[in-house]
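User: Show me a protein chain along with its predicted structure.
Assistant: Here is one chain, sequence first, then structure tokens.
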Amino acid sequence: MAEETSDAAKVVPKAMVTAYCTMGVLSFVTLCVYCACFVDYSVLDSAQPWLQVFVNSTGSVKGAIALASIMIVCIFLSDLNFFAATSRQIFAFARDDGFPLRRWIAHVDPHSGTPQNALIIVMAFVVLISLIGLGSSIAFQAIISLGTLALAFTYELSTLCLIWRRLYGPTLPPHPWSLGKLGLPINILASLYGLYLMFFSVIPAGYPVTAINFNWAPVMFVAVMLFATVHYVVFARKVYKGPVVICQPIYM
């Protein structure tokens, strides 16, 4: 979404750091308060344990509804942000010839000025994944774990490339946002955290491990990577040059 931001080189990293610092502190405080109220393990037997904690803490159903409503509104707003960011990523990748049907996906509606086809694709995937949860909770959790694993892998790959560039490559080009001497230690810590996140996203949900509780996320991840590799070797490498090499006009 940096393409739609003025002075993105400064504004985007500033927004990212500010958001993580602010919401990290608030989320940690919220988690501590919630854990302090989670004193009765019998709530685990209720249909909605997280709501039962609110009921027990406030002593009122209306109070629990009020607290739950705040969380639902926050989740809804977060989903809107994810929806917008994901659709823009798909649009940008398709515009750079990285997707099949790239011209249709990268089409921008002349009236709204938004990539509506990319929005439709994101919405369709969200609906399909939600329907999977109705048939099999194991499959749904595997897909959720796959998303976490794939996201952590992309961060890990980017961070490792940046660490290699700092240690062995040429000097980074001039940039308005810099962490200075703390850049390399922060990159190393981020890489270690990425490995930690990847490890816990692939472990099984319980023991002993069976075909039912097995975490299929790593299997699915390997399958997706194989598909992406074959697609790149057979087709994409002939047309995809990357946003750094070329800058194509938006398909209208």
